[in-house]
Design brief:
The structure is a single chain. By secondary structure, the protein is an alpha+beta fold. The protein has 2 domains: about 80 residues, no CATH class; about 120 residues, Rossmann fold, CATH 3.40.50. Helices cover about 40% and strands about 15% of the residues. The protein is built from 9 helices and 6 strands. A 4-stranded mixed sheet has the order 3-4-6-5. Strands 1-2 form a two-stranded antiparallel ribbon. The longest helix has 19 residues. The chain is flat, with a radius of gyration of 26 Å. It starts with a helix and ends in an 8-residue tail after the last helix.
Length: about 220
């Protein structure tokens, strides 16, 4: 900690030592983390004492949040107890589940459209979106997909192909920090619409599938 504190003025170092002393880590590498995070937020190498000037449960507020974190993690663990998480290319994952009718997929790809309002990097090329749409329109599972209104999506996600749409207002921010309002579209495929109308998952299992414990077989 001494090396990390060296660039700061002595007036700022006092609350920093007090803060670091309450960090529930034994090793020096972990103990430096909160200091480094605060230090990076102050490019002039000065810490605002007000950030360290209030307490909760008789400890500094950020330390209190850390001490309470296990409660939130328990809730997360319960919520995800029967959830499977995959880190794969979206198109590959879509191919795995698109013919399983009991699957509900919400697709939120990088939006295709005019992104001059503060966006520098995005996957908004037509080729990527057309590959996605060609797979989506063949899917037997329930799908809804969000994006900006554009000719390419209207070509594939239309009434003729069994899709409906809904407009919503959304507030978004570019990487320049400026907020602006845009109209987003959510498209729903026919299996999703049918499931919503009937309040039933759009699949019927055979006796053999039930006996074998199948819940979401390919159709």
């Amino acid at each position: 900690m001494i090396d990390s504190l060296a660039p700061a003025r002595s007036v700022a170092a006092q609350p920093s030592f007090r803060y670091a002393a309450q960090i529930p880590f034994a090793d020096s590498q972990s103990a430096r983390m909160p200091w480094d995070a605060g230090f990076r937020q102050n490019p002039q190498n000065e810490l605002n004492e007000e950030r360290f000037g209030y307490a909760r449960n008789k400890v500094e507020a950020r330390v209190n949040r850390w001490n309470e974190m296990h409660k939130y993690l328990e809730e997360v663990a319960i919520r995800l107890a029967q959830v499977r998480v995959d880190r794969k290319d979206a198109l590959e994952l879509l191919k795995v589940f698109k013919d399983r009718p009991a699957t509900l997929m919400y697709l939120d790809p990088p939006y295709l459209g005019d992104r001059i309002l503060g966006y520098d990097h995005d996957e908004n090329g037509k080729e990527f979106h057309e590959k996605l749409l060609k797979e989506v329109v063949k899917a037997k599972c329930m799908i809804f997909i969000s994006g900006y209104d554009n000719a390419l999506y209207c070509k594939y996600l239309n009434k003729k192909n069994g899709w409906s749409r809904q407009s919503i207002r959304a507030l978004t921010k570019g990487n320049n920090g400026k907020a602006f309002e845009r109209k987003e579209i959510i498209w729903f495929n026919e299996p999703y619409q049918r499931a919503k109308r009937t309040n039933r998952v759009p699949i019927r299992l055979t006796k053999k599938e039930k006996k074998d414990g199948k819940i979401n077989p390919i159709r």
